[in-house]
Design goal:
Blueprint lengths: L11 H9 L35 H6 L39 E8 L2 E19 L2 E14 L2 E12 L5 E11 L5 E3 L4 E2 L7 E4 L8 E7 L3 E16 L2 E13 L4 E7 L3 E7 L2 E9 L10 H19 L5 H15 L6 H19 L3 H19 L5 H21 L3 H18 L5 H17 L7 H16 L2
Antiparallel strand pairs: 1-2, 1-14, 2-3, 3-4, 4-5, 5-6, 5-7, 5-8, 9-10, 10-11, 11-12, 12-13, 13-14
């Protein structure tokens, strides 16, 4: 499952000490690791031989030596890759270069779990072994639990010449209920904390084993392929050619995992926790503008945000009815089922909040309806346009949370704004981007460690909305 199962370390020193153990020696089966040979520069290189594996001592130090890992002879991620066009990631079961925006939904600890994965415009060059550099694509993974930011990760991927996709590291930011980053657990970089790691083989076969994460004490997972060429239910119909795998975690538990052509990671299940594909673009994209029903739903949701914030309950009835009518009409067509479930939940919460005359509940639910509408509109509009609209909604969320005296919520909203900005910053001119960044700095300062000025946050969020309206 994409949501982390990592061991939490007490500090960088221990992580580095464990990583040093990856430099040579045997793996869990006692086979000798082979040091990497020298190589050349970014984008093109000669394969350096064999990728060094964690030693038995490193596995034992991280309490992983008793895991039922595959013998090294059964693994397909030992031979080091050659990278010529590493940013062209077209492996059908992990087509990161072609997937601009992906939405997952599910449940975690009984709470709604929603993720957005976005291909960012920049790349990053990583020295994955001594003297050997590779240019990687950067994918932003954003996880919400019960509507709040829980985790953001920047993942670095490259495709080898044989078509296999390699994982070169991730920067992880875990958020607490106060809206602060409280952990970087699981952060690693190939060539620094440990080796490059295969995340998708070029030609997956039943029985193949590989490690998408392979750094004891930091991040460790091993995958074995169970089934190939399976047909699965996708967001808009059957998807052929899927791969089913079983993933072993560092705590000895397993996850079921599915990858599907055109989607990449498709489903993960870990106990009662589920993360499943809801929509992928461009795979599920449609031609033409959004249907009128979605525009009506969006307009009604925006009216309901304003009405609930002002406590004007008399004006909510027409907008609520308009939203219900629009949704009832739109859902008669082909609607991705997991997005439909999220919309149903948001509308139920909206009705409950209005009936209870609860401004916080109704305001949050109205924003959820608007966000769910954007999820559906993603099939018709460019992802950057959707992300800019999401950005404006998170500014409105600040107004709702500030009115409810939710300081942690406001901090979480600002963090969400900051990460969402990175998805569309290359589409704005420098002056507009500077204006937005100035608002974000002021917002961050208003609810920093030293300040909890919700009135200032409210004013700045309103000012940010004015700026966005003028773009």
């Amino acid at each position: 499952m994409r949501r982390r199962q990592h061991t939490i370390l007490s500090g960088i020193g221990f992580a580095a000490a464990v990583a040093i153990g990856c430099g040579g020696g045997g793996d869990a089966t006692g086979d000798a690791g082979v040091p990497d040979a020298g190589a050349s520069g970014a984008g093109a290189s000669d394969a350096p031989g064999t990728i060094t594996q964690p030693t038995q001592a490193a596995l034992a130090a991280a309490d992983l030596d008793k895991l039922p890992v595959a013998p090294q002879g059964e693994r397909i991620d030992i031979e080091a890759p050659t990278f010529t066009n590493p940013t062209e990631i077209t492996n059908p079961l992990f087509p990161i270069s072609d997937l601009h925006s992906v939405i997952f939904s599910g449940t975690v600890e009984g709470k709604p779990f929603h993720t957005e994965t976005t291909l960012l415009p920049e790349t990053r060059v990583i020295e994955w072994s001594e003297g050997q550099e590779v240019e990687t694509r950067v994918s932003q993974y954003f996880a919400y639990v019960d509507g709040r930011i829980e985790e953001v990760a920047l993942d670095y991927y490259a495709q080898a010449d044989d078509g296999a996709v390699w994982y070169l590291g991730e920067d992880v930011f875990d958020y607490n209920e106060e809206g602060f980053v409280d952990s970087f657990s699981g952060t690693w970089l190939a060539g620094k904390e440990g080796p490059a790691e295969m995340i998708m083989p070029a030609d997956p076969q039943v029985g193949d084993a590989f490690r998408p994460e392979n750094i004891p004490g930091v991040a460790f997972e091993e995958v074995r392929i169970k089934t190939i060429d399976k047909t699965v239910d996708g967001p808009t119909g059957p998807v052929e050619g899927a791969m089913v795998a079983r993933e072993l975690h560092d705590d000895g538990t397993y996850s079921d995992k599915v990858f599907a052509p055109g989607y990449g990671e498709f489903f993960s299940g870990h106990g009662s926790e589920i993360e499943a594909m809801a929509l992928a673009v461009p795979t599920d994209a449609l031609d033409g503008p959004p249907p009128a029903e979605l525009e009506e739903l969006s307009a009604a949701a925006n009216d309901l945000i304003d009405a609930s914030s002002s406590g004007d309950w008399k004006s909510t009835a027409p907008s609520e009815q308009a939203a219900m009518r629009a949704w009832d009409t739109y859902r008669r067509g082909q609607v991705p089922p997991r997005l439909a479930k999220e919309m149903d939940r948001a509308l139920d919460e909206l009705t409950a909040g209005i009936d209870a005359r609860d401004q916080e509940q109704a305001g949050n639910a109205a924003i959820d309806v608007a966000q769910s509408t954007l999820d559906l509109e993603l099939r018709y509009l460019p992802p950057t346009e959707i992300d800019l609209a999401r950005f404006e909604l998170w500014a409105r969320q600040i107004l709702v949370d500030a009115a409810a005296d939710q300081v942690g919520g406001v901090r979480a909203d600002i963090a969400t704004l900051e990460w969402t900005r990175d998805r569309f910053d290359d589409t704005l001119d420098s002056a507009d981007l500077a204006r937005i960044d100035t608002h974000l700095i002021e917002l961050r300062d208003s609810v920093s460690f030293a300040s909890e000025d919700l009135a200032a946050a409210t004013r700045e969020a309103a000012s940010l909305r004015d700026t966005l309206a003028g773009l």
